[in-house]
Amino acid sequence: MSHVTIAWIVFACVFGSALVGMYVRTVLPEHHLSDESTGVLKLAVGLIATMAAIVLGLLISSAKSSFDTVTSEVVRNSANVILLDRVLAQYGPETKEVRELIKQRVGTLIQILASGEPAQIAKLGTPEAMSRAESIQHKLEELSPHSDAQRQLQARAVQIGDEVLAARQLTMLQAEGSTPAPLLICLVLWLAIIFCSFGLFAPANPTVIFGLLLGALSTSVAIFLILEMNTPLAGMVTVSLAPMREALAVLGQ
């Protein structure tokens, strides 16, 4: 199910609850809406609102942390790829083939990530994709240095290659998304209860309905952003690929 669909479902549940609350207000006996009754209900709803705010804050913080981690890894990986290319250039013309292969792989990776297709991006984490990435590392290890300087450059290239592979794997793991479905369902349930109480306590007029509509829209957008930031390589909210494109532009030079 897409994040947009989930956001619309959340909006329908929350705003629909407010409308239900307005309807219930019209059928309840007057003594159910006395000051004593509404006072107790407002205390209960206040407790639920506090819990919902805490959970919403935790989800936003977790999603932002995941998004920032992937962004940092993309930047660091781009810098490491440039450094690897320069080390291989210093090694000598024997590395021309592997440098061209690195540039080709980076270009393909950018195309897949820029497409934003979850199915294509998911394939980057398959064993076959990892094997293709490791093949570059094998080529680095197969280099035959003829001097101490080349041996040092080869060791440095292998080290950088290991860092690139580790960062790549971390990025793919972070890109999976980690929003627990039960927690999200519980949050939507709490929000529905809160908005139902809003509709119960407020008079049904266009101003109130419009305000509740905006509130429901805001909560659904917040949940949409949480889901989007938890999948930073796919969807509408994605990490910038500018560092990778800049790296691609200087590779092989």
Summarize the structure.
By secondary structure, the chain is an all-alpha fold.
Fold topology:
Layout: H1 3-27, H2 35-91, H3 96-115, H4 118-122, H5 127-141, H6 148-174, H7 181-201, H8 206-229, H9 242-250
Keywords: Membrane, Transmembrane, Transmembrane helix
Organism: Trinickia violacea
Protein name: DUF4239 domain-containing protein
Can you tell me about this structure?
With 253 residues, this protein is mainly α. The protein has one domain (3-250). It contains nine helices and no strands. The longest helix is centred in the N-terminal third of the chain and has 57 residues, at 35-91. The radius of gyration is 27 Å and the shape is rod-shaped.
General shape: rod-shaped
Helix content: over 70%
On the 0-100 scale, what is the average pLDDT? 82
Per DSSP, the total helix count is 9
| Low-confidence spans | none
Pattern of helices and strands: HHHHHHHHH
- Could you give the distance between the termini? 44 Å
Beta-strand proportion? under 5%
Tally of separate domains: 1
The profile of the biggest β sheet is:
none
**Nearest-angstrom radius of gyration?**
27 Å
* Structural class category: mainly alpha
Secondary structure: number of strands: 0
Pfam family, one: Bestrophin-like
Organism: Trinickia violacea
InterPro entries: DUF4239 (IPR025333)
Transmembrane segments: 6-28, 40-60, 181-201, 208-227
Question: What structural keywords apply?
Answer:
mainly alpha; rod-shaped; transmembrane; 253 residues; 9 helices
